[in-house]
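User: Let's play a game. I give you a shape written as tokens, and you guess the letters that built it. Ready? Here's round one.
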């Protein structure tokens, strides 16, 4: 049962889009999946069919697993997800860290349940990132082929390595998103990733496809909106690759 922390190396690389599509594909494959939004912008829910105006809230802070569970939603494809800040405490009253800390605290209990895959849409900075890494089996860094993203990966790698060594995790994996193979610059950066990180990189970059943006406009993600998109098929190959990296039992 993998707990996968997906971490966008910088804003806009598509971490939430990839997380939502991965959750959807796993659910379509009949897996139990729970995606948890640890990002204060609370956008994951919008990729999984929850209406903008819906607000699963309580001012009470859940303290037990059964209370916690009540805040979980189900996407049209059957992926369970937990929006960020279900307590709906105004941003002025609470820090982004605090809003997610209780989720991490209760995660070990959740892992004992029957959910097979837990995906954490994780921000790159802050104590919540450390906490996510402390419970995750595997960290996936989502990035793209811009030079600035590549530099960010190089800068962040030592800290990620240190965090995973403390937790005895696998080395982080890299998924390159939004790839436009027609761009010579992107192709060069792409080669740099593979030269530097080798088989830590998902072998097939996820291409750029305008339907990813369209899908969100429909309140969906690419896997439910455009099953035939190459983005969907690349993300569909992720679970097997993750399992191969982690050497999980075949039935997970
Ligand atoms: N493969 C792709 N092809 C085309 N557009 C994409 C792709 N992946 C993501 N996008 C677009 O990139 C933008 C950012 O995506 P997303 O919100 O998923 O990124 P993020 O890393 O979660 O950002 P944030 O840092 O704000 O949380 C969106 O407009 C989305 O539609
Ligand atoms: Mg995001």
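Assistant: Ready! My guess for every position:
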């Amino acid at each position: 049962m993998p707990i996968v922390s997906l971490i966008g190396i910088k804003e806009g690389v598509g971490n939430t889009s990839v997380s939502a599509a991965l959750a959807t594909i796993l659910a379509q494959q009949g897996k139990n999946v729970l995606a948890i939004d640890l990002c204060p912008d609370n956008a994951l829910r919008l990729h999984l069919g929850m209406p903008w105006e819906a607000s699963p809230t309580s001012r009470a802070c859940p303290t037990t697993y059964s209370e916690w569970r009540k805040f979980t939603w189900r996407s049209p494809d059957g992926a369970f997800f937990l929006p960020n800040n279900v307590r709906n405490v105004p941003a002025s009253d609470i820090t982004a860290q605090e809003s997610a800390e209780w989720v991490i605290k209760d995660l070990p209990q959740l892992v004992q349940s029957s959910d097979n895959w837990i995906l954490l849409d994780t921000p790159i900075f802050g104590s919540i990132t450390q906490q996510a890494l402390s419970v995750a089996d595997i960290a996936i860094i989502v990035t793209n082929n811009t030079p600035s993203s590549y530099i960010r990966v190089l800068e962040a790698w030592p800290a990620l390595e240190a965090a995973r060594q403390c937790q005895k995790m696998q080395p982080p994996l890299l998924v390159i998103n939004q790839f436009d193979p027609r761009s010579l610059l992107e192709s060069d950066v792409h080669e740099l990733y593979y030269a530097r990180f080798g088989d830590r990189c998902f072998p097939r970059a996820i291409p750029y496809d305008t339907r990813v943006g369209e899908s969100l406009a429909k309140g969906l993600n690419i896997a439910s909106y455009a099953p035939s998109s190459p983005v969907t098929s690349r993300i569909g190959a992720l679970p097997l690759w993750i399992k191969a990296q982690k050497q999980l039992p075949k039935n997970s």
